[in-house]
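The authors assume throughout that readers already know how a fold can be written as discrete tokens. For illustration, here is how one protein appears when written out as sequence plus structure tokens.
>
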Amino acid sequence: MYLLVHSKKKIRTINMRNHNVLIIHLLANKKDTLVQSIDGSNHHFSFLGVKDCIGQLLREHARMEDTEISVDGWQPIQLPEELFDEFHTSPAPALQAMAADQKQPKPIREFVSALLANGQEFDNISFMKSSYVKDQSAFDDIHFFLPVEEEDYIWHLDYQEIESARRVTLQPIPVRSYFQEIERATIAYFTEE
């Protein structure tokens, strides 16, 4: 408990399909982490070095295979904010019809199928700072993604244009590349002052 209370930086990831949470707490020595896995009311703890396979741990939590398919030539999907919001609130049968409609482009069908399989929610990886003493947490950065398990790639949600252009972009990224980049970002986040 002492280690949890004194951890200021952490990475939290939520697997929406399985309703599991993984929190990686940076320890005071800035070389090690305390990994907290939450499955229902069960909490499991282990230790891991900051530079020891955090990307693999996050990938395994997302239940994705370590694959690197080619997405060369694949186009991102750009959606107006309103349409994107509808994907979360539309009745499942309407989305199932869209996923089965061969007139829809294949990327849209695959995206909608993956979204349905994930309970119409995105998984996320959050970079956080918190103070248990003050009972406060702040998010420095959040990465939303949608696993496409059958095809071994991820739809990464880029929401940088949400305020300026009122749209989001869904970028297909191979699993290995995605989690390697997340691992680089995690190491940088944990080792910066």
The two ends are 24 Å apart (CA to CA).
